[in-house]
UniProtKB/TrEMBL annotation, chain A:
Signal peptide (from-to): none
PANTHER family: INTEGRAL MEMBRANE TRANSPORT PROTEIN, SLR0610 PROTEIN-RELATED
Biological source species: Tumebacillus lacus
Transmembrane stretches, start-end: 26-48, 54-72, 114-133, 145-172, 202-220, 232-252
Membrane listed as a keyword: yes
Keyword tRNA processing: no
A Pfam cross-reference name: ABC2_membrane_6
Keywords attached to this entry: Membrane, Transmembrane, Transmembrane helix
InterPro entries named in the record: ABC-2_transporter-like
Name of the featured protein: ABC-2 family transporter protein
TrEMBL record, chain B:
InterPro entries xref list: ABC-2_transporter-like
Transmembrane segments: 20-40, 60-79, 115-133, 145-168, 175-194, 206-227, 234-254
A Pfam family the protein falls into: ABC2_membrane_6
Key words, A-Z: Membrane, Transmembrane, Transmembrane helix
Signal peptide limits: none
Organism of origin: Tumebacillus lacus
PANTHER family: INTEGRAL MEMBRANE PROTEIN, SLR1174 PROTEIN-RELATED
Protein name in UniProt: ABC-2 family transporter protein
Length: 267, 266
């Protein structure tokens, strides 16, 4: 474990140094993230300004929901944005380099890059969650703040696990992008923007069990917003960290299973 | 004209090469359709008066067309992404050397891609959506003709907007950062997702003054009957005015950039 950590930190250090070469890009990218999300939140604001609530969720509650997703996504994107590029690593043979080195390929792959766009996501979501906290007049006890931190990390872990597992199909087919893109529609297209209690049971099942993206924001929000009584499955809110741990464990299994059957593309 | 169809044929072959991608994209589109239809259903049950004079079926039709037209009149991929790629790779010289007017050449390329997307992403899903959801259809031939004219003009307007936006890459070599702003602006101001009359009153004059409402709100509004009578002809003429205005702007700005263009050996 200690050895894995050393390898990981060394790689991250190299990645940070590489990124620091492009500072103007960094600022432009962060600004872009702010504007892009302002556009989406603006649309929600227009709707809620007219209809006041969406299936029992007010504007600031939806802001909280949206930004809890963005926080988890941002944390994931800073460190693990490249996991969905596994297919590219395999196609151009970069992945085979990792296999020849005397360290775990998983650790090497994970530490390969860091990305600055995620920093914008984290900053923006922290700001917006703070605003939502004020506007909703929430009053968390001290352990709720600790729980919130745990939830944010779990949210990142849920996204990371699901994306990496889906990307592992590239070990068999060398193509995973289209599949990942289709699956993530359930994430940014459904779970991020809407409280899932407004949808039918099929879609709820998909985002709770099949592709449990709802554990990134919907279920944890129920407790943090004091809404766990409003959903018959509200008790799932307590399971967020457990779901995250389980998914991480499952991902490690899937990775090991896939890499054993991997045949290089030879390029 | 044959220039235009040559590009269509090329894009058709390209599009049919990736079948799995096509079906996954189609699935994604129907997921979006379901999500937005549910959204309007929930809001209607909650506040039936919130739609103003529009009915629930009109709103669902609006949502369906918004998503399908969004896939045809693409903001992600278009002349701007093409220009950026060519400029960055230094390949733009090959486009400039061709014995065709540059703007016309770009228009023909975009036409090809759009016609192919139209036949893949608008017509079949629209038929399928009609079977799944309760939709309103145009009541007479005039409305159909208006809709078709509006879609055509919307395409031209989007093309010029994309073109003007893509010209930024001649100055900065990159569009990242700017592209987010552009997406956000079109998403918010075009009425693709939320019809313009639902925006707060103070905001509406600004939205009507921008060209983006002509891209989505006008064709969708005409199809669903939200825009009708005298408003319909005004909306179409507004589009025409934008088409001409943006064409002149594109010509003028392109001529200036072309004159000062320096291409490094690619």
């Amino acid at each position: 474990m200690r050895e894995h950590l050393t390898v990981y930190l060394t790689m991250i250090r190299a990645a940070v140094i590489t990124r620091l070469q492009y500072r103007a890009d960094f600022l432009m990218g962060i600004l872009g993230v702010f504007i892009l999300n302002a556009g989406t939140l603006g649309t929600t604001w227009v709707l809620l300004n007219r209809f006041h609530e969406l299936n029992g969720w007010g504007f600031w509650e939806i802001v909280f929901l949206y930004n809890l997703w963005l926080l988890g996504h941002g944390i994931r994107a800073v460190f693990f944005r490249h996991v969905t590029n596994l297919e590219q690593f395999i196609l151009d043979g970069t992945f085979d380099q990792l296999l020849t080195r005397p360290a775990s390929p998983l650790v090497q792959f994970m530490g390969r890059e860091i990305h600055y766009l995620g920093v914008g996501d984290v900053l923006l979501s922290a700001l917006m969650i703070g605003l939502a906290y004020q506007n909703l007049a929430l009053d968390w006890t001290w352990w709720m703040f600790l729980w919130f931190l745990l939830v944010a990390l779990s949210s990142a872990a849920v996204e990371l696990s699901l994306l990496l597992m889906l990307s592992c199909t590239a070990f068999f087919t060398t193509r995973s992008r289209a599949l990942v893109d289709a699956a993530t529609q359930f994430s940014w297209g459904v779970v991020q923007q809407y409280p899932i209690d407004m949808f039918n049971n099929v879609l709820r099942f998909v985002v709770t069990v099949a592709l449990p993206f709802a554990f990134m924001n919907y279920y944890p929000s129920l407790l943090l917003l004091g809404k766990e009584g409003s959903d018959p499955f509200g008790y799932l809110t307590w399971f967020t960290p457990l779901v995250a741990l389980f998914l991480l464990w499952l991902t490690a299994r899937v990775w090991n299973f896939s890499i054993k059957r991997y045949q290089s593309t030879g390029s | 004209m044959s220039l235009f169809w040559t590009f269509s044929r090329q894009h058709f072959y390209k599009q049919s090469a990736y079948r799995l991608n096509f079906w996954l994209e189609m699935g994604g589109m129907f997921l979006q359709l379901y999500v937005v239809a549910t959204l309007w259903n929930v809001l209607f049950t909650q506040t039936p008066t919130g739609f103003g004079s529009a009915t629930l079926t009109q709103m669902i039709t609006y949502a369906v067309l918004g998503i399908l037209l969004g896939a045809v009149l693409s903001v992600d991929e278009g002349v701007h992404s093409y220009l950026q790629g060519q400029v960055r790779m230094g390949l733009i010289t090959t486009d400039l050397m061709k014995p065709v007017d540059f703007l016309l050449h770009m228009l023909a390329r975009d036409f090809g891609a759009t016609v192919v997307r139209l036949s893949f992403y608008l017509l079949p899903p629209l038929v399928f959506a009609y079977l799944l959801f309760d939709l309103v259809l145009p009541v007479d031939a005039v409305q159909v003709v208006y809709f078709l004219i509006a879609v055509f003009q919307a395409w031209v307007i989007l093309f010029f907007c994309n073109f003007l936006f893509g010209l930024i890459s001649f100055k900065t070599l990159d569009l990242l950062g700017f592209i987010f702003t552009y997406y956000a602006l079109i998403r918010f101001a075009s009425g693709q997702i939320i019809p313009l009359w639902m925006y707060p009153d103070w905001m509406q004059p600004f939205l009507y003054a921008l060209p983006f409402q002509s891209i989505f709100y006008t064709p969708i509004g005409l199809f669903t009957g939200v825009i009708s009578g005298g408003q319909a002809t005004t909306a179409l003429w507004t589009q025409t005015a934008w088409m001409i205005g943006l064409f002149v702007a594109a010509r003028f700005i392109w001529a200036r950039i072309h004159r000062h263009l320096v291409v490094q050996g690619g």
